[in-house]
Amino acid sequence: MANVTPIRTEADHQAALARVNALMDASAGSPEGDELDVLVDLVALYESRRYQIGHPSPVQAIEFRMDQQGLSARDLVPLIGSRAKVSEVLAGKRGITMAMARALHRHLGIPAEVLLQDPDVDLDDSLSDVEWTRFPLRAMARRGWIPDVPDLRDRAEELVRGLIQRAGGPRAAAAVQFRRNDHRRLNAKADPYALQAWCWQVLAAANARPPDAPYRPGDVTPEFLRRTARLSASAQGPRKAQQFLADHGIALVIVPHVPRTHLDGAALRLADGRPVVGLTLRYDRLDNFWFCLLHELAHVGRHQDGGRRSVFVDDHSLRTNVPGQDDIHESEADAWAEEALIPAAAWQTGVVREFPTTMNAIDLAQSLGIHPAIVAGRVRHQRANYRLLSHLVGSGHVRRQFQAPA
């Protein structure tokens, strides 16, 4: 047998391959046959180190098992979820979720390391139980949140997942989940699917036009809220507030509500952590706008920056004057908003509290540098009398500002 040396370089590899080719007809047991056996082993060892082949792709592994067991694409539906999902997975257009990986491993025996090597595997399985047709698809399409196509229900998952991607992807969207026992200021009649869709649209709109300025945690303080409140004195106060917040890295997004949301506003977060305040303006009044805005900002500064919770949604028609009847987070946000709009000392000494006349409301507003609608709103809420000072609350003065060009 010729002197066989280790294969250390690509030149050694090519020379060994040429020698293997020359010895292919050698008889087994002959010196040349023994040399061939040794060379083949050396080549295989070098190639395993130099050219790591690794596992087959998840799709290749699935197709191999299908061929082995005589399975059709239809047989994969119980494991993957639907015919459409099976087609997309096999075509490489859809990543494998953790739920799919578990089912394929359990029923087809595909090793987990093969299924989970795919960078498209969605390890966040929080959307696996979503019933896609339960979203208010028609209302979402009318508002332009998803494409308005004839087969909305058949394409529900595809269309809603498109909205989720615009909202920041599955992980950002998964934070927006609502349960009856979360103690948020949620109406018992609210539909969780409608609420999620609205929140995703708010995040998608904020992602489309994010603030240029960075957000610095800790910026939103009681003094920050007072500065925001004083913008109300301007006729264009709501738009000025939007720009003021953008200058501090906070997005203010107006998205009208859809049926069964029962919603005034929300404090959310983009995937990069920047705050987003979403408002519905379902009550087109200045007093409602300013309270809702400052309440959600209070959540940003008092709760989100502290890391206690990242999502707050609010139906302020549930707000009461009775201590202890609300979630502690909501009561804390109310306190910050109320103090920023009308400080407790000014409210206690103001004559409008006892004598709610137009002039008294205007006098207090002027002394604080805020819009009279805010004073009128406080009087109406404290007295639970929504006929009082209705001419001061600025009905019809908010939506039109956000409908106008920026």
How would you summarize what this structure contains?
By secondary structure, this protein is mostly helical. 49% of the residues lie in helices and 4% in strands.
What does this structure look like?
The chain is mainly alpha-helical and 406 residues long. Among the domains are: 10-50; 58-115, lambda repressor-like DNA-binding domains (434 Repressor (Amino-terminal Domain), Orthogonal Bundle); 161-284 and 297-321, no CATH class. Helix content is 49%, strand content 4%. The chain is built from 19 helices and four strands. The chain has helices at 10-22, 31-50, 58-69, 77-80, 83-90, 98-108, 112-115, 137-142, 156-167, 170-174, 192-208, 222-230, 237-246, 286-304, 328-341, 344-349, 358-368, 372-383, 399-403; strands spanning 251-254, 265-269, 275-279, 312-314. The protein has a four-stranded mixed sheet with strand order 1-3-2-4. α12 runs antiparallel to α14, α14 crosses α15 and α17 (358-368) crosses α18 (372-383). The protein is elongated. The protein starts with 9 loop residues before the first helix and ends with a helix. Residues 120-124 have low confidence and may be disordered.
